[in-house]
Queue: 4 jobs
Job 1
Amino acid sequence: MTTHRSPKPTGHSAQPVERTVTAALLLALVAGLAWIGGMIYTVLGWPL
């Protein structure tokens, strides 16, 4: 009788994905902060 064994996870294959996700989140954070800064600059530039 044969037993089913799941393949052993490789530890180093998840690292590039994690690095990519972290880089994407940091890029999104920088873009969001730049957008908020641009909105504040625009509102402050309006004549009241």
Job 2
Amino acid sequence: MKDKFWLALCFVSFFSQAELTPKSHTGWLGIDYQANVGIDTGYNDNVTFQPDPLYASESFFYRINPEIRMIGQRYTDTYVLSYSGDYLKYEDASSDDANKHDLSFYGEWWLGFKHSVKLNLDNTINREQRGRELTEGLLPSQLALYGIDEGLKTNFFNGEVRYNYGAPEGRGSLQFALQQKRLDYTDLSSVEQASSDFYQYVLAQEWVESSAIVELFDKYSKVSRFRYSFITNHRDYENQIKNSNEYFLVVGVQTELTGKSYIDFNLAWLYKNFLNNSDSDDFNGLNWNFKYRWQPVNYSTLELQTSRTVKDPNESGGYIKDNKYGISWKHYWWVDRLYTRFEFLYNDLDYVNMNTRRNDKQYTSTVAIGYDYRQSVYMELSYQDLRVGSNLVTDTFYIGENGTVPVNRTLGLDKSLIMLTFKVNI
């Protein structure tokens, strides 16, 4: 798929989540330290995203999310080193226990009043959830057949160097960036021993993406900012028939319409072509990301979002049009600490130029009640429900040296999760 991200147990919220106000501690050499830890516990009724309730495994789970950040400053230069972890353990599904480790570095050096260089380095060691990404729609018998006795381990690297021309508090800036991303699957010995065909299929999904970016930012006023970008991505897969080029022209705006409403809108024209696959049609069309936030009173916030992106499928040929539409409402009640949160997300996935015209629809609903003890402590009880349907019962893809071994994905699923979250600054 496109970039692999950690999916928090079942699905990532489309909306902004509560963030604690950072608490800094100044230590050796004047370095500021910030740390927090989150603790989750709950119940998951379909750990491996099975389409048939007969195969669904249920389990209570525990999760710990530590974060630590070290911030150093020398004159106008800034250095940030951070680590975040995600340690997940199931009581009755230990094969799906997972750990995530993310280590990142950010540095900014000013070479003069209007010239600066920024460096971003990020490396994430993760594990895909069984039943998602490459193992989507695989039944327990298929997971056993291909040696997938735990989630596939991944290593994702993202590095960027960026030059900025513009004063720190000036109206605008012109920026040039070079970026590279890389996804690798690691520790595949059990898959290789069970099925050399599926092992080669997994390796074929590894990729390296190189990007060049030119961006102009215009701070038109105190409440309005415009963005104009040209982005080109070249992605090389181990399966070279999937190699592609992407060219984006992006126009964006962030603004407060009134003191109570806010818009963040990016509209992009995308041209995508496949270098080694004459059977795949090029994509030429619009992508977008639109967010509207309305806060009529200081204790109630309504948020609307919609987006469209074009993603690569796991198989060769074609692309996926990913359309999302969501609404969220957060309201503080009698006191300014007790709140409720409601979210609904509709996700339409249209598989274009594939062997079969597949269309998936996902419905995610979230209800939560929380309490902010103070700016550095909060707790929340939430319930999430995921429904996935498709116009197809099964979808077949092919593995093997000549692509002659069929593998069926069984589509559609129901899944729910109840979770108690506690988070505190240290």
Job 3
Amino acid sequence: MKSWGKRMSYGLAVAAAAVAIPLTAGSASAAPTWHDLAGGPEMYPNMAACQADIPRAKQEYQDATCINVNGRISLWVLY
């Protein structure tokens, strides 16, 4: 038979794990995400026009990049 001290320590370990697992799993949802900020032929007729806006976008966001999807060029930023 196990002592009450051992049972208490096991119980506390299980309780701590039950609290820690949801807390660490929840922090993954707070990760930065990419968002389509601007784009289209009226905004960026070519890739160079989009890339010219990257330095300005990086002043306000973590990162920025230009994406070409089927001829539509868009500026994406990382929040």
Job 4
Amino acid sequence: MFASGLNTVGNGGAVLQTLAPTSSIIAGPSKHSIYLGTYEFTLYTHKLGDIVRIRDFAPCNLLFDQSHE
């Protein structure tokens, strides 16, 4: 969900995979994250295992109309 679509504007996106021990968890999913079905965790990156890039998304060339800003 977050590695594609509008998040690819500019440089593209990527899906990463790692093993995250329980000790690396700073915060669990918020109510909003659960509502969206993403179940995002905030992790202390120094405690993660190897990080592997498993999928790339090409940059989106979408141009926004900024005339109203």
